[in-house]
Amino acid sequence: MKYIYYPMILFSLICTLSACSYFETGQIQNVGFITDAEIDNNPWTEQGYNAMQEIGDTYDTDVYYEENIETMHQVQETVDEFVNNGVNLIYGHSNIYGEYFMSLAESYPDVHFVYVNGGESGENVTSLNFNAHAMGFFAGMVAGNMTESNEIGVISAYYWQPEVEGFFEGVNHVNQEAEIKLDYLNDWNNTELAMDNYTKMKEQNVDVFYPTGDAFSESILKAAEKDGLYAIGYLTDQREIAPDAVLTSTIQNIGDLYQLVADDFNKQDLEGKIYTYDFHDEFISLGAFHPSVPDDVKMQVENDIEAYIETGLLPNEY
């Protein structure tokens, strides 16, 4: 087990779950973080990791984490280790953990399990969902206005990602002449395959790319900048990665959301249910615009986002 922050590690090691009163208060004791990927060089996972450090500092508690946890057996072993170290709030940083947590929750009634982007919940299992369709739509509006070749490329991890569907709708809303090419990898982290798809699309005259994958977005943004092309950043504000290429970014502020969840849990306000977040919650946003994006395009997108926050309707639904 790896430790991020452990001011009380001696105490947590000498106590066993049956001998300590960890779970009697209902407040945060120790926190666990499970991810199915490497933390380094993965913007999505780094956000979660950094949030855990902040939670540890805020509550002066131990935070345990494990990387590359993918199977039910691995999750079971990790949860056992966490609980034996007094963890009573566990974050699963992927939608794959929903099924696993639902299977384990009854055996750990004093532990609250939290995971992202899933459709299952229970008394002590919470799912945090982002309305990624809308963020994809507004990014698509930018891409549709900025393409010169009318060839736009989406390189996604999975075909079912809602931001991909939204992106198609946003492009078509402002530019019905544009053709959108889609390749999906069935993998969040296969950078080599993503780059192969990038090269193929570049040869097909694509001049704006939207890479919707945790690990490979950065590589595509840098390649687009080198080739004098445009791209949309993913999950974090990625302008600094490729400032000459990134038109804007579709941002999910998972770190801030994890902190809110910790606060609610500590106040005993966290429910076992499916929560959904959107632009009006400020956990979804667009990043800074590239200087080349015309003022009228920026103004239209910003106005449409404000209208969406007020009405819940996208521009093509008016």
What does this 3D model show about the protein?
- There is one protein chain.
- The model is unreliable at 1-22 (pLDDT under 50).
- A seven-stranded mixed β-sheet has the order 1-3-2-4-5-6-12, sandwiched between helices.
- It folds into two domains: 2-130 and 254-281, 3-Layer(aba) Sandwich (Rossmann fold), CATH 3.40.50; 132-252 and 288-317, Rossmann fold, CATH 3.40.50.
- 47% of the residues are buried.
- Strand 2 (30-34), helix 2 (43-59) and strand 3 (63-66) form a beta-alpha-beta unit.
- By secondary structure, it is of the alpha/beta class.
- The protein has helices spanning 9-14, 43-59, 72-84, 97-104, 132-146, 162-174, 191-203, 217-226, 254-266, 295-311, and strands at 2-5, 30-34, 63-66, 87-92, 112-116, 125-130, 151-156, 179-184, 208-212, 230-235, 246-252, 274-277, 284-286.
- Helix 2 packs parallel to helix 9 (254-266) and helix 5 runs antiparallel to helix 10.
